[in-house]
Write a structure and sequence with these properties.
- This protein is mainly α.
- Among the domains are: about 110 residues, Orthogonal Bundle (Cyclin A, domain 1), CATH 1.10.472.10; about 120 residues, Cyclin A, domain 1 (Orthogonal Bundle).
- It is about 55% helix and about 0% strand.
- It starts with 16 loop residues before the first helix and ends with a helix.
- This is G2/mitotic-specific cyclin-B3.
- One of its GO terms (molecular function) is cyclin-dependent protein serine/threonine kinase regulator activity.
- Keywords: Cell cycle, Cell division, Cyclin.
- Belongs to the cyclin family.
Length: about 425
């Protein structure tokens, strides 16, 4: 029931002024204590604010009330006893105190500097650890070109890489010198005409290209060590084909066939004697590395089409007639012929797989490629027709009729 406006409230006593002031002061003190008891907002995860090792003297009695109670229980502080100090002793104590303070301050400064340097070093290491690592340069993958022929017993895929590595080593043994200076009766042109005739023999007997290349190598290595007359040059060439046929062919031609193609200019005894002379001069070491084998291997690495491979074979077969190129290693000659064929067909250049299997970088081949392009463009001897007529046939995609590259165009293609 509401109390009337003019009635007196008997149950409620009015507070007197002094008590109100005391209550208000107590509330303010409690509010101040609660504010001081709060944790610092800058403290991590609400943890209490860090203090120094000896405590914060200014607010120790407020934040730790039990200390104040303990001190109050001890009673009033004792009066300090004054001790008389001699002026000289006081002066010395003051000097010693300053020295100790300076020493402590210098030690603190050095400690601070060392701590800051250590902290800086740690910061740099942390920054270096956080920095993103440089992306690793990934080398293009090398294709295993023998992978698809593991099940073919005639491909020798398991030993192919070792076989060609062995042939690369044997190249160093069969490097041809300039032997025409030691041949008084034959010339470079005679040799070129003989090789052109050997190409015709290979076509007529339907021999493999390996037989032709090996026969030319056998003839050159024999002429390095034996001086001969021009009337015996064709006999040496035909005998070299006979030996190469026995080495490469399943069914080599007989001796009478070689006598026939020489128009019976030589007798059977002469042919057999020349065969013995060549084999003994070469110490029966006739497994000479030839460019044609390397060419087929490198074309497989480039996934070259049959037309591109035939173009490279045409360029490589033209080199058989050139005495200036007999000193070139077979693998380098094959690589350069393939690179020129790729550029003529406007195909991709020397890829990592070719570089891996051939052992030649793209920067090593341009000088020889330019020489081959010059041979293809300008060296047209009317007496040497066998190679060009052979590769003008449709069986060989008529690659001999393909227009060669101009020198500026070839240089631009090699740089791309």
């Amino acid at each position: 029931m509401p109390i009337p406006r003019n009635s007196k409230n008997v149950g409620i006593k009015q507070p007197w002024l002094g008590r109100a002031v005391a209550v208000e002061n107590a509330q303010e003190e409690k509010k101040e204590e609660s504010c001081q008891a709060k944790r610092s907002p800058s403290s991590p995860q609400g943890a209490p604010k860090k203090r120094s090792a000896f405590g914060d003297i200014t607010n120790a009695h407020k934040t730790r009330p039990w200390v104040a109670k303990k001190e109050a229980a001890k009673g009033p502080p004792k009066k300090a006893v004054k001790v008389a100090v001699v002026p000289g002793v006081a002066r010395n104590n003051e000097i010693n105190l300053k020295k100790s303070l300076n020493k402590v301050s210098s030690e603190d400064a050095s400690t601070t500097n060392s701590d800051s340097l250590a902290q800086k070093d740690r910061t740099q290491k942390d920054d270096a650890a956080l920095m993103p690592a440089e992306p690793a340069v990934l080398e293009p993958p090398i294709e295993d070109i023998d992978k698809g022929q593991r099940d073919d017993p005639y491909a020798s895929a398991e030993y192919a890489k070792d076989i060609f590595a062995y042939m690369r080593e044997r190249e160093e043994k069969f490097v041809l010198p300039d032997y025409m200076e030691n041949q008084p009766d034959i010339t470079r042109d005679m040799r070129a005409i003989l090789v052109d005739w050997m190409v015709e023999v290979q076509e007529n007997f339907e021999l493999t290209h390996e037989t032709l290349y090996l026969a030319v190598k056998l003839m050159d290595h024999y002429l390095v060590k034996v001086a001969t007359r021009r009337d015996k040059l064709q006999l040496i060439g035909s005998t070299a084909i006979l030996i190469a046929s026995k080495f490469e062919e399943r069914c080599p031609p007989c001796v009478d066939d070689f006598l026939y193609i020489c128009d019976d200019a030589y007798k059977k005894e002469e042919l057999l004697a020349t065969e013995i002379s060549i084999l003994q001069t070469l110490h029966f070491d006739i497994n000479i590395p030839i460019a044609y084998r390397f060419l087929r291997r490198f074309a497989k690495c480039a996934h070259a089409s049959m037309e591109t491979l035939t173009l490279a074979r045409f360029i490589c077969e033209l080199t058989l007639q050139e005495y200036d190129l007999v000193q070139e290693r077979a693998s380098r000659l094959a690589a350069s012929c393939l690179l020129l064929a790729l550029k003529m067909k406007k195909l991709s250049g020397w890829n990592p797989t070719l570089e891996h299997y051939s052992g030649y970088k793209a920067q090593e081949l341009p000088p020889l490629v330019k020489r081959l392009n010059f041979l293809l463009t300008y060296r047209h001897d009317q007496r040497l027709k066998a190679v060009r007529s052979k590769y003008s046939h449709r069986v060989f995609f008529e690659v001999a009729k393909m227009a060669p590259l101009a020198m500026p165009e070839l240089e631009a293609a090699l740089q791309s």
